[in-house]
Target: RPW8 domain-containing protein
Amino acid sequence: MALTDLFSSEIASDLWKMLVTISKKTLRCKSSAEQLITYVREILPMIEEIKYSGVELPAPRQSQLDRLSEILRSGVELSHQVLSSSRWNVYRNFQLAKKMEKLEKHVTRFLQVPMQAHILADVHHARFEMAERFDRVEASNRRMERFLEEMKIGVNGGGWVEEAVRSMQEDETWVEGCKGNNGFGVGLDFGKNKVMEMVFSRSDDDWIVGICGIGGSGKTTLARELCRDDQVRCYFKDRILFLTVSQSPNVEQLRARIWGHIMGNQDLNGNYMVPQWMPQFECKGEAQVLVVLDDVWSLSVLEQLVWKIPGCKFLVVSRFNFQTVFSATYHVELLGEEDALSLFCHHAFGQKSIPLGANVNLVKQVAAECGRLPLALKVIGASLRNQNEMFWLSVKSKLSKGHSIGESYEINLIDRMAISTKYLPEKIKECFLDLCTFPEDRKIPLEVLINMWVEIHDIPEAEAYAIAVELSNKNLLTLVKEARAGGMYSSCFEISITQHDILRDLALILSNRGSIHEHRRLVMAQREENGLLPKEWSRYQDRPFEAQIVSINTGEMTEMDWFELDFPKAEVLIINFTSSDYFLPPFINKMPNLRALIIINYSTSYARLHNISVLKNLTNLRSLWLEKVSTPQLSGTVLQNLGKLFIVLCKINNSLDGKQFPNLSELTLDHCADLTHLPSSICGIKSLQNLSLTNCHNLSQLPVEFGKLKSLEILRLYACPDLETLPPSMCDMKRLKYIDISQCVNLTCFPKEIGRLVSLEKIDMRECPMIRYLPKSAVSLQSLQLVICDEEVYGTWRDVVEMTKSNVHIQVPEQHFDLDWLQE
Model:
């Protein structure tokens, strides 16, 4: 057998060229690519010598070349996979990086044999030619090492998550561009105009308009487009209220929100009892009010939420046509064939038409199987992106075996959605199914989900973020950025997740297969009418549940309302409730493996928690999220392993004591109105790396010993208007990388020795009008990369940059005032 048959130098040459390209293209593979490039470059001269010398080699050397050929051939194949991987396919790139590292280890072990002595010739020549290229690879490596930190603090746009959010925004832009041009939905532009005619009607009888259609047909999209329309906003003078009702609504709270909006009293307490008899009155002048009720399921609920009041219009979005209530109705039609194909191609190929080289008939057949429903077209189209023709044929075959979408459209639609999840990697599929554990039609903070995935799937944060982006790319969830001032610089802390209710139903159906006590996720899909636990659960009191995730959705619970349940394998407990008093479930005592506890109150008043003593036994608890509760006193309780604590919209009651969380790495206090000062005991938490004190409007003082937080890397003091000074001791934080003091409107200056913050990379100081000058030591901020500030301070920072000749980027953001987020 000829030597060239055993080993071809072209293989090594191709691998070398491909790996150089890969090192630029895929951040996750750069570390491995750099090493492999080095090894192949050293081997090339030896291969050239063998190929042209014509000397027959001894058997041992021939065996060595066989082994080397096999390793490099596998490297070429892996390189092809990396090159063909879409830059948006983050999770696949993450997995390919692991394979690259494994290949690197194989090559390393091979080069440790005596063969190294034969590959030293001509290395110096190649080294000179590659110097500039390696400099770029080294710079890329440094960027990769800071990747997760940048994603957290928002430097350079925030990484994968920001890319996914931008992708969602591009989708909306594409839809906007298609309106009126026979693009997505004959129904969107035409339907919006029809509904506008109904809403603008001056007739007293046309006071409640309905938008009806099957699930996934675009009803909510149409309603939101209507609310964003300039003509509609002008007509109603921005007095538009958008509320999601859902299958298990809090009717009294919704009534109070609606009545407060109509009366112009946005601060009306949610516990305000709206009288059943509504006084008739005339709106002053030409005042008009629009109330949009989305996802209405029950006529009895709807009748409690609408009143015929002059000047007030109701727009109701529902799968059902409530003919006895609606004065006018618009039925959302399915997309036309051309529109459906255009939307499908947008998500499958990134363009509005079938690309050259694609199997036209196959693409049209798969699109037709989606039944002209926007949701099905988006999800199935995204699942086929960057897949080969055999994969398409397999999906088409499975789709064609199902029934057409007809009378039982919802069941058949869910069946089609299930096909798109079948081909997901197992870990990504499990993460998708986890989404059903959160209440319907609620925004899920991205941090809550990431923490849950990290704990229950034993994955690093970077992989959890990659999975969230992958599910977003597949249209199985939606990443939503809060529309607040300077939103383009928001970090992952201002990003939430939403999910279409049909996709949530799909996750529930897939999770609920088998016996209830064997479910991996035990979920109350919606709140029971009596606000208590499902009776079905009580039948299994005599045997332990296998669930790893337990999700509860109740009203007020007393000690007598609970029954004994056993969850020995539970790692995540999600408690959603609506009440001002809540007795924590006694069965928490029987959750020895609990890692993440999430307690969220959806009422308008703070809830007082009882039975706090059950937390003492949670020795493995690592993440705790409390929302809209009166924070309990944990006297005598030490949560030794707690790493992350989030307290959101809570009443603190001076209950924080750093000694109770000795190993905390992340602490967030958001919208805590009674927080006036940070307890000095927090400064004793030596492990604290991330501290966020945001929207705490009465916070006026930080501890003098603040600088004791030597491990702190991220400090957020966003929107704390009463804060006037920063403690000088914070300049001792040598690891601090990011400071956010935006909207601290009374903060007068930075500490004089701020230049001692040698690791500081980013400063966000938007809307800090009292800061007029910078300390002289600011010129010593050697690591600084980005400053976000107002126009008034731009010149001062520019002088600092010119003086130091640094590459600091100074950004003056456009002011963006949008209070729509208050409606959520």
About this structure: The chain has a mean pLDDT of 77.
